[in-house]
Model the fold of this input.
Amino acid sequence: GEQQPPLHILFFPFLAPGHLIPIADMAAVFAAHGIRCTILTTPVNAAIIRSTVDRANDASRATGCPAIDISVVPFPDIGGLPPGVENGMALTSDVDRERFFEAAQLLREPFERFLADNRPDAVVSDSFWHWSADAAAEHGVPRLAFLGTSMLARSCTESMLRNNPLETVPDDPDALVLLPGLPHRVELRRSQMMIDPAKRPGHWALFQSINAADQRSFGEVFNSFHGLEPDYVEHYHRTLGSRAWLVGPVALASKDMAGRGTDALSPDADSCLRWLDTKPAGSVVYVSFGTLTSSSPAELHQLARGLALSGVDFVWVIGAAGQAPDSSEWMPEGFAELMARGDRGFIIRGWAPQLLILDHPALGGFLTHCGWNSTLEAVSTGVPMVTWPRYADQLHNEQLVVDVLGVGVSITGGKDYAASGEVMGEAIAESIVRLMGDSEEGDAIREKVKDLGMKARCAVENGGSSYNDVGSLMDELMARRTA
Ligand code: UDP
Done:
């Protein structure tokens, strides 16, 4: 029959690196399947993904796949925000945070204009843009919600919203809350709950809107894969009845392009990788808490003590989430001397080439806050984790890593760190040694995470589950077009 023009999908990521990065990677994956992709975002956020998109487009030119476009629109100016503050990473106060969210809602106008002018076959919009479900429906465009988290975390939120188990739990931060109906026993302290209607009613309402919008959408797209959390995939289909496509880990697309475009943001990339070249296989721990979680001087102090005490060589990212406290505020005694040796640790101030570091043979562990992208990147590169989650889905992701998959060791032992105060350097050192030292436990963890890394690779390859999920999504969208 007649040759159809390629499917066109509009991506509309939330404005934070942890959402923009996987969306750029996902666009690269979709483009490799022959889908025309456009990413709608603002100037500062476009800069974060520009080099990743350029790399994907270089690869596409060789294979004849469609190029990815970035449609750049101004960040809505409502006053009261410092210039250049266009994403979650740049926010430093609650006042700014409120202004930022208020301004960001005005992106609905350019979003709708794009739909009206370009009539894409579908939109993949972040679940945080819950209003995009109705906006897309008004334009007759199917909307897919992008869930930047695990199926497990998604199922926990759903259980929480559906059952409100907090209703019968005392108003005590240490009270235990059981989330009903999940494949595994998921119990957290009240203070660890991502949403607590008693504490933040607005937040609860927001999550209900998000959940409702996702459920009236065409479906949900996950950066995960069937083999990673099969019980939760099954649970999701049984209880939510929505459609889901699991197309990850999308970071593998960037890994195959020898790192991400964002790695170019890191002036320390080359020297760090050369430093890692001097280290034996599996001997170094990489320490990072992502782009939004900044550490206090007390936390940095205990981390430095822990890294020193562990005796394990380390690469430590300080201040990727913004300005780090001056070292005089946190450096323990003897740490400057330890660093001066040059061979024990490498500190990166600012942005790290995370994917390249994780993929280096010298890597033996990742001390992580369990952001979903970091977690998946560790799984994809077969690196076991030392977990120190702080808030939101990070606590659920830790449960997946430690309790369900058995590919990590928890520093806090599931206790609420924020409420119980300090994590001591001794506990940090003990967890690192438990994971990376010579032991049966360490060997078992390493074997499991290598195996998962292989499963991740198979999932995205031709005929794998994630590869096939992209294909079935394309078939549905094509069928809709001709219907
Ligand atoms: N990242 C990076 N270099 C850094 C810090 C973060 O490349 O110095 C990347 C990391 O690889 C991941 C993303 O930024 O893809 C962070 O997402 P995640 O979900 O792990 O955490 P968040 O920052 O959203 O809390």
About this structure: Residues 17-18, 21, 262, 288, 290-293, 317, 320, 351-352, 354-355, 371-374, 377 surround uridine-5'-diphosphate (CB under 6 Å).
